[in-house]
Design goal:
By secondary structure, the chain is of the alpha/beta class. The chain is built from seven helices and seven strands, in the order ααβαβαββαβααββ.
Length: 213
């Protein structure tokens, strides 16, 4: 879903995001990819099998497909998936879209590249399982690209959940993925303009890690 979320039950979370997308009337997070992807293009190679988790309205999955990857993506909000399909058609690329919540996805399927951008809807307890699913979905020798907010983001209020416990720190990500080859782990601030949903000064963090072959 290329975005952040809160932590109600799965059904409530789906309704919340479906309502938010419908009320937006158009692409809530815009149609251009996250800066994290455009800043790190070398990890996206043609013919790779890629998964975009919680992909939202398709801006990130479409970007990967435009670069020649074989892309699958899921999101729990039907309206978001419809917009992703419309965006991929408009761009002339193919993405295998699915309406699914996190628990409903088949995490036994593996990919050369797994992209997870602004998925901070899990509380610390649920995040343990979420990270385990991401680790499982990356094929041996494959790469995880994870992008989100640090706790300082709550003070900015320019996107993401208003709960510091949902945010990432370098120590948290190092603990979760430090047994992989960490290619990039960086926290930084920048002005973000990614639709109305992410707009303004933001406290960000990137992880790019390769799973042992």
């Amino acid at each position: 879903m290329g975005r952040d979320r809160g932590t109600p039950d799965a059904g409530g979370l789906t309704r919340m995001w479906e309502d938010r997308y419908r009320s937006a009337g158009d692409y809530l997070f815009g149609i251009t990819p996250a800066g994290f992807l455009t800043d790190n293009p070398g990890w996206m190679q043609p013919a790779q099998r890629a998964l975009c988790v919680a992909d939202g309205e398709g801006r990130n999955s479409v970007h990967l497909a435009e670069r020649g990857l074989e892309v699958s993506a899921f999101d729990m909000a039907p309206t978001a998936v419809e917009r992703g399909r419309a965006l991929s058609a408009a761009k002339g690329v193919v993405v295998d879209y699915h309406v699914s919540d996190w628990a409903g996805w088949d995490w036994s399927r593996t990919y050369d590249l797994v992209v997870a951008i602004f998925i901070q809807f899990a509380d610390p307890a649920a995040r343990v399982g979420q990270f385990a699913d991401l680790r499982r979905a990356v094929a041996p020798g494959g790469v995880l690209m994870l992008h989100g907010y640090t706790p300082e983001q709550v003070d900015y209020g320019t996107g993401g959940p208003g709960n510091r416990a949902h945010m990432y720190t370098a120590d948290l990500l190092r603990e979760a993925f430090g047994d992989w080859q960490v290619e990039r782990l960086a926290a930084y601030e920048r002005d973000v303009q990614e639709g109305r949903g992410h707009s303004g000064r933001s406290a960000l963090i990137d992880l790019i890690a390769r799973k042992p072959a």
